[in-house]
Amino acid sequence: MDSKLVIYNTLSRRKELFEPINPPLVGLYVCGPTVYSDVHLGNCRTFVSFDLIFRYLLYLGYKVRYVRNITDAGHLEGDRDEGDDKFAKKAKLEQLEPMEIVQKYTLGFHDVLRLFNTLPPSIEPTATGHISEQIEMVKQIIENGYAYEVNGTVYFDVEKYSQTNDYTLLTNRQLEDMLNNTRELGGQDEKKGRLDFALWIKAKPEHIMRWPSPWGIGFPGWHIECSAMSNKYLGNQFDIHGGGMDLAATHHTNEIAQSQACNQTAPAKYWMHTNMLTVNGARMSKSAGNGFLPHELFSGNHPLLNRGYAPMSVRFFMLQAHYRSTLDFSNEALEASDKGYKRLMNAIALLPKLKASNTSEVNIAEIKDRCIQAMDDDFNSPILIAELFEVVRIINSVYDGKTKIDLKGLEQLHLLINDFVYNILGLKEDSAENNGDLEKLMDFLIKLRHEAKIAKDYSTSDLIRNSLQEIGFQLKDSKEGTIWSKS
RNA sequence: GGCCGUGUGACCGAGUGGUUAGGUUGAGGUCUGCAAAACCUUCUACAGCAGUUCGAAUCUGCUCACGGCCUCCA
């Protein structure tokens, strides 16, 4: 457990040694999706990134409580405290109950993440399920003097807060600059300060999602849910709070302020932010309309896509970039990742066929150390993957009889693949539907072709090989015989 | 305008004050009945200018370009 894991902390803007507050327990909170529409690929990247982080913490032996919320209420259109609730708006549009919207897109979200082979979080709380916790928190903040109520809406008093606290911890901005640069927005009259944000919002008569509160009928502000739920499940102080980079300046800044104002302590020790997925250099986003839906990517049914790509290839594509770098999407890049991923998995498939020698020319323990070093350095999956391609070369070389490995080395190899490829990177074979019948059938075809080759009947042997190629099975000849894989 | 960040070879993408990232692609080779696969070898790099340094693509400054946040978004 005395790992050398180093994490980039947005608070300090540098990498810090990871020291959990109560080892071996680790509390991890990640801002989840707002479920009023389909998740797009950019959203998925964040959750895949935190899946990698979650998995590596587990590998290190930590007992991680991973909380990722579902935002299903209170998220305003345009942060004006008078906009429409996103769910209510969408519900009107689709003529559905708000909770039907929530249900539909929550299920869709889960389906997509399952395809990407992410582990489910330990707890997945919803905003609507924690209204009373949010109300209690707002009450406490008011009691502590950092919020005030106007006409049924409660605002957080940023000016008061910043007298004794640093409101701009995450962004390094000057409060005055923020004041000067905030645009003139509507609905400002009620607020004392223009940076003040709503904790609780009075519901207009047409509002569908509404709850009673000490301040009248209303609904919670966007930021308070995460503060309330992280506090409930992870305590006043926990280890890691994460989310997309776009959340740092506003959402997370306000979360810190709320938690601090309520509990007199900073909520999280490490703040981690994942970078954006871009398309042609521009951020993929819902409002920009340049987002892919995952099923479009899988099927290739999108104007920007040449073909479809399997979920695991896409996951691999994401893991080949570091989580704090932007990742630019293109067909070429995906194609490259797809081929690399298949090369990796094909090599792994050879593992059971490898034969041990009495001597070993490779040092698997050394490679494992480098893999750990890579992940210890702020979860550097691209370097880990580079190391794994070294392993690919070794496996292929051993299979070809050009390199020797002993029994112990083989065991280490199995373990390495199991730990780093399956458990940490979270990759798996896409074609899990392989069954014994297919295996027998392919063996039969390979035998037929082999006999044709012995008889020098190359037209028959090529017909078998090429026909299989056409329907997606590739035959590979080697001195050890012929094997096959799905192409 | 403010804050934060980025600019690496055909493409994607790591890293580092002096040593090969890696994947994909191109070229050559080994193997093969021919291929494919695999393996070996190999080409085109660190936006520009100036400075620090024995040495910088890596540090500093400036310039240019791009992106994110400052309004909902992972």
Automatic annotation (TrEMBL):
<feature type="short sequence motif" description="'HIGH' region">
    <location>
        <begin position="33"/>
        <end position="43"/>
    </location>
</feature>
<dbReference type="InterPro" id="IPR032678">
    <property type="entry name" value="tRNA-synt_1_cat_dom"/>
</dbReference>
<feature type="binding site">
    <location>
        <position position="286"/>
    </location>
    <ligand>
        <name>ATP</name>
    </ligand>
</feature>
<keyword id="KW-0479">Metal-binding</keyword>
<feature type="short sequence motif" description="'KMSKS' region">
    <location>
        <begin position="283"/>
        <end position="287"/>
    </location>
</feature>
<dbReference type="Pfam" id="PF09190">
    <property type="entry name" value="DALR_2"/>
</dbReference>
<keyword id="KW-0067">ATP-binding</keyword>
<dbReference type="InterPro" id="IPR009080">
    <property type="entry name" value="tRNAsynth_Ia_anticodon-bd"/>
</dbReference>
<comment type="subunit">
    <text>Monomer.</text>
</comment>
<keyword id="KW-0547">Nucleotide-binding</keyword>
<dbReference type="InterPro" id="IPR014729">
    <property type="entry name" value="Rossmann-like_a/b/a_fold"/>
</dbReference>
<dbReference type="InterPro" id="IPR015273">
    <property type="entry name" value="Cys-tRNA-synt_Ia_DALR"/>
</dbReference>
<comment type="similarity">
    <text>Belongs to the class-I aminoacyl-tRNA synthetase family.</text>
</comment>
<keyword id="KW-0030">Aminoacyl-tRNA synthetase</keyword>
<feature type="binding site">
    <location>
        <position position="226"/>
    </location>
    <ligand>
        <name>Zn(2+)</name>
    </ligand>
</feature>
<dbReference type="GO" id="GO:0008270">
    <property type="term" value="F:zinc ion binding"/>
</dbReference>
<keyword id="KW-0648">Protein biosynthesis</keyword>
<dbReference type="Pfam" id="PF01406">
    <property type="entry name" value="tRNA-synt_1e"/>
</dbReference>
<dbReference type="GO" id="GO:0004817">
    <property type="term" value="F:cysteine-tRNA ligase activity"/>
</dbReference>
<dbReference type="GO" id="GO:0006423">
    <property type="term" value="P:cysteinyl-tRNA aminoacylation"/>
</dbReference>
<keyword id="KW-0862">Zinc</keyword>
<feature type="binding site">
    <location>
        <position position="255"/>
    </location>
    <ligand>
        <name>Zn(2+)</name>
    </ligand>
</feature>
<keyword id="KW-0963">Cytoplasm</keyword>
<keyword id="KW-0436">Ligase</keyword>
<protein>
    <recommendedName>
        <fullName>Cysteine--tRNA ligase</fullName>
        <ecNumber>6.1.1.16</ecNumber>
    </recommendedName>
</protein>
<dbReference type="GO" id="GO:0005524">
    <property type="term" value="F:ATP binding"/>
</dbReference>
<dbReference type="GO" id="GO:0005829">
    <property type="term" value="C:cytosol"/>
</dbReference>
<feature type="binding site">
    <location>
        <position position="31"/>
    </location>
    <ligand>
        <name>Zn(2+)</name>
    </ligand>
</feature>
<dbReference type="InterPro" id="IPR024909">
    <property type="entry name" value="Cys-tRNA/MSH_ligase"/>
</dbReference>
<feature type="domain" description="Cysteinyl-tRNA synthetase class Ia DALR">
    <location>
        <begin position="370"/>
        <end position="436"/>
    </location>
</feature>
<dbReference type="InterPro" id="IPR015803">
    <property type="entry name" value="Cys-tRNA-ligase"/>
</dbReference>
<feature type="binding site">
    <location>
        <position position="251"/>
    </location>
    <ligand>
        <name>Zn(2+)</name>
    </ligand>
</feature>
